[in-house]
Amino acid sequence: MYNVSKDEIIVTILLCIFMFVNLISKDYQVDILSNELSLLVLVVASSYLFFNRIVKLIFKRKKNDFYCTTALIQTLKFKGAGRAGYVCYVIDYEDENNNLHTKELHTFCSIKSLKPGDKIKINVDRNNPDNIIVVDSDLLIAITICAAGIAFESFIIISYISVC
Fold it and tell me: Rounded to two decimals, what is the model's pTM?
């Protein structure tokens, strides 16, 4: 499951409004916006939506506020989402002060099939122990989203070039 942040929702709403205004202006044959400007807005908004996660992950990992530790997968929960569902991992980890924390991972991606009792590598924020980065999972999700973004951006640009 992909958690959407507030800024991504705002960009999506603004993009929808922009495209709606552009569509109405084209229907009434009023040239408010040029095709190049429309393409530029679409490329910038979609590239933000696809590539901001990897940029945030890189900057978040560059801070020296995180330390590396391991977390133990305690249980797996099946969460219903519409007609389908997903597996939620419940992990336990200790911070620097040896305080035990329990957290549910709703956005987790792994190549291996993980089961209760397995350990995963995490980075824990020193200032806020509830803020963690699941290293391999976040990187794999970011790479997948970037690949989708590159494909989508290429499709937009190729479509524009073939029309012109």
Answer: 0.60
